[in-house]
Amino acid sequence: MLVGWNHAGDPRFGQVEADRYADYFTSEFHPPQYAYGSLLARWKRSFGKPFELMMPSEMGSWGEWTVAPAATLRTTAAIAVANGGSISFGHVAYPSGFMRGQVPEAVMNAIGESNAWVQSLEPWLTGAESVPMVAVLYSIESKRMLEASALSGPADDPHLQGIHRILTEGHIHFDIIDETTLLSRIDSYQLLILPDQAYISDPVEQRIREFVRGGGRLLASNRSSLYDAAGERRPDFGLADVLGIGFGDVSRYSVSYFYPIDAAIAEAIPDMPILLKDPAHKALRIEAKEGSDVWARFTDPALEAKTHRHVYHQHAHPAHPTPHPAVVAHTYGKGASLYVSGPIESAYWRTGSPWLRTLYLNGLRRLYPDPFVKVDAPLSVEVNAMRQSSRIVIHFTNVREDKAAGSKTFIEEIVPAGQIEAVVRASADRVYVVPGNTELSFVKEEGQIRFVLPEIGLHAAVILEGTDVKELVENAGKES
């Protein structure tokens, strides 16, 4: 008997102690929250258990009694399996009335179409594991501390959803891990991200320090390591030495502006102050320690806008340059770190500002310039790099999550995405696309291969095989 339950392995519940007794993980997956299905899968897969996402065949939730478009069902299936899981479609026959006991043929056809598509990919899905490249720490201990205190920590976890959106839109392959996974296998990753992880336990903090000292990369933001288990603010960041910073104060303004921004991370960003706004979180005042590089500073608004005193409809304009660092780069041992002193992930989740995403990704790419897989594609394309015993499988899933005015949105047609260019640090003898086993031309360069997908619909998986692939698979998560 296999034991599982709805929301087993779900970060919003954070029941990691009980989760360890589950044989498999499962969670509901409802359109139009397509991105959240990907987030769930990335968290679940890091525990090494089989998992599924449960999609109602109806329009949005159980018991709607009207089937969703077949393209919507196939999209949810693609998100689940490209991230290493499986999909299950739920449907209940009419319990009474003139159609009691019946399942409409339209429902069976829609489910059947998606299941047939998954079946066509099964050889490249079975037993696949994520290639360890980038790890995002979602600290359950920090989550519980915030929930038990008066500190801001909204239930929708905007920092986690924000970093998920930034990285997927930046075509970065990553896993979301907890403290136990970090302690046991952080060395298989090259980059660790701490998106406003306010509390980090002493063992985890020390493990992070060893990881960076040994050559790892660390990207942290806002309150990371600034609080203890009781919710008390420490005199300084626990990881101050690794990040090359010192704590000063909390900004007295609810908004801040990134300005000036150093050329190191300014590419494709307008030459003007860039708004940073999350009503629940403020930027921190920090100092950069000797040996650190300041890549951006904060400019303050003219005043704190209030009902009786304001400049315009919302917050005030940028007016006062400050000496306070906003982005700090630092070298520690053989590794390096980057720290952003504002709530950039949650601000991106709240505002969708493309300039915040661009700034973040510019910094990430300076910190981590040579990932195992590097992709240039439209924003809608999510990348997952998986490995089997004899090959690398790179999934490209094309899902644009649109929002309608006050209603749910369903995917009725797949809009193609084209000219996807990828560089993989690998040597392969054969590269092909599935399903269909279509050979794909590629160029061998020093230590890597390069290929271009001219166009994809909903999904394409590129398979790398060859005499060197077995060694490649075994060492894909290690530094070259």
UniProtKB/TrEMBL annotation:
Highest taxon of the lineage: Bacteria
Domain named Beta-galactosidase trimerisation: residues: 134-230
InterPro entries, per database record: Beta_galactosidase_Trimer, Class_I_gatase-like
SUPFAM superfamilies hit by this protein: Class I glutamine amidotransferase-like
Protein name per UniProt: Beta-galactosidase trimerization domain-containing protein
One Pfam family per UniProt: Glyco_hydro_42M
CDD domains associated with the record: A4_beta-galactosidase_middle_domain (cd03143)
